[in-house]
# Entry
Amino acid sequence: MKKFHYSYLICAATTLTFFCITGLACNAFSIYLPFILKAYGISNTQSSTILLTRSLFGFLSTAVSGWYYRTFSLRNGMMIAGLCTVLGFFIYALAPDYTLILCGSALTGIGFGLGATLPISMMLNRWFKKGRNIAMSFSTMGSTFAMIGIPSLITWGIEHRGLKPTLFVQGIVMLVGLDCG
# Structure
């Protein structure tokens, strides 16, 4: 019988990480914007600023990622980045105003910049000598999996339970997914 190699678990964990950080936190977030616009009475420009804040903090986080991963181990750094993303969603859920939504967006951007593509490719490079491209392709599919069916669940949750509970539940789902990953 052939021995099960630990690298397959690493590939599954990185797929879950992509699912949570890139798929749920970034790609699926656009589903929330019309509801945030309505609930907080903000303008279209302000809602665009939410995405701009996330993108700016993601870019800046990626710029310092070399230092970040020299300071923290890869595993600890990915865990902290994932927690930043989850904390961003908890702040979204608890935010009484636009300013705190921007804080949540900044944390989500930091988590995305430090915890998505770069550390996942570093992790896969450590575990795969052959088939590295296939492992990376499989892992990045995690973000695509989040876009199949999840937007419908988010919309249903907002319409039946409300914006803040849906954001909170998504934060919990991401926390569990990142814990498993």
Q: What stands out?
A: Residues 52 and 138 are 29 Å apart (CA to CA).
